[in-house]
Amino acid sequence: MNAIIIDDEANSRSTLHLLLQKLCPQVQILAQASNAKEGIALIESIKPDLIFLDIEMPDKNGFELLAEIQQPSFEIIFTTAYHEYAVKAFRFSAIDFLLKPIDPDELIAAIQKVELKNKPQSGSPQIEMLQQLWHQFQSNQKPLPSQRLALSNQDGVHIVDIKDIVWCEALGSYTKFHLLNKTNILVSKIIKEYEEILSEFGFIRVHNTYLVNSNYIIKYIKGDGGQLIMSDGSEIEVSRRKKEEVLSVLNRILK
């Protein structure tokens, strides 16, 4: 896999290059660029399989660089020094990223994900979503508002409205999303990741297996832990450990 690194920080470029040489020898770094202009020239001349792209750079940022590429055919792994907001933004858009300083295990995992993909993500609606979130962060640094979520699987990228997710189901290392229109989307990420993303939108973890949108709970059936009846007719088991939390949420809804 031929790759290039585009980052205005020399130390970041050299550190990433050394890590790749040591941990991911299948990735060959053919060149490095310190700004968007150099990066665009390298992409057009080398035509890499993969680029490691910093978002914040002088003159043009990573998004502006991508906007100038005609018919991109490469994978992207973004690199960024931002933390809390960056994690949210990337998770919402389901795009691969590495936080600086780069963790070796996360680098290996990111490369493995790229190797499993069939299509490049550059130019996808995921990039557009990430760009919108990033601009939001730069302009006012407010928390993410209610919006859409990108769900990426072998079929492609599904952009769904968060309000259309009724409940989520853990299936080992996969998560199945049950939507208002009765369709399901299976994603190869653990439910814990989505619990962190969706908790601020009224979703509650009621069981190790289930994460539900409290807006679509229509009935609670008493029991050891109890059961929830969702608006789509699904019966969701509540664990004993989560019973009090669920009842507390229901009391708030009733008020």
What do these coordinates show?
This protein has helices at residues 10-23, 36-46, 62-67, 84-93, 104-116, 125-140, 191-198, 243-254; strands at 2-6, 28-33, 50-54, 75-80, 97-99, 148-153, 156-161, 165-171, 174-179, 184-187, 203-205, 210-213, 217-221, 227-230, 235-237. By secondary structure, the chain is α/β, with parallel strands linked by helices. Helix 4 runs antiparallel to helix 6. The model has no long low-confidence stretch (mean pLDDT 85).
Strand order of the largest sheet: 2-1-3-4-5
The number of distinct β-strands equals: 15
> What percentage of the residues does DSSP assign to strands (E)?
25-35%
Rg from Cα: 21 Å
Q: Which sheet architecture does the biggest sheet show?
A: 5 strands, parallel
What's the gist of this structure?
The chain is α/β, with parallel strands linked by helices. 35% of the residues lie in helices and 29% in strands. Helix 4 packs antiparallel against helix 6 (125-140).
Key features of this structure:
single chain; 255 residues; alpha/beta; five-stranded parallel β-sheet; five-stranded antiparallel β-sheet; 8 helices; 15 strands; 35% helix
